[in-house]
């Protein structure tokens, strides 16, 4: 018996509904990972007045790879592993 038409009811590529349940959390994690690193790299590039790095990081999406390389190797003041994020509010005098 063929309940789903010519493709057997599994949709394109032979995947059923369960594949979407597995892929959705993975995609969510990848998006959150990418947004976190993009935010940190863009903040650092803007703070160091590195216009071309800012534009490149904004346009190119590499799941955080380019952003991590920028933060730890290519920026004027490379972050150290024990350094905290740049504070959002400048210190008061």
How would you characterize this protein structure?
There is one protein chain. By secondary structure, this protein is an all-alpha fold. It has a domain of 49 residues. Helix content is 54%, strand content 0%. The chain is built from 3 helices and no strands.
| Multimer state | single chain
Order of helices and strands: HHH
Overall average pLDDT: 77
User: Roughly how many Å apart are the termini?
Assistant: 78 Å
The profile of the biggest β sheet is: none
Helix content: 40-55%
Give the total of beta strands: 0
- Indicate the structural class: mainly alpha
Low-confidence segments: none
Radius of gyration: 21 Å
Shape: elongated
Strand content: under 5%
Could you name the key traits of this structure?
93 residues; mainly alpha; 54% helix; single chain
Summary of the model, kept short:
With 93 residues, this protein is mostly helical.
Secondary-structure map:
Blueprint lengths: L16 H31 L3 H9 L5 H10 L19
Helix pairs in contact: 1-2, 1-3
């Amino acid at each position: 018996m063929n309940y789903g038409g010519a493709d057997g009811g599994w949709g394109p590529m032979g995947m059923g509904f369960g594949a979407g349940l597995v892929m959705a959390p993975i995609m969510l994690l990848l998006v959150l990972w990418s947004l976190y690193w993009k935010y940190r790299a863009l903040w650092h590039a803007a703070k160091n007045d590195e216009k071309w790095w800012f534009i490149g990081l904004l346009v190119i999406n590499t799941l955080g790879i380019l952003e991590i390389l920028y933060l730890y190797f290519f920026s004027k003041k490379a972050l150290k592993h024990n350094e905290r994020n740049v504070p959002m509010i400048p210190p008061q005098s």
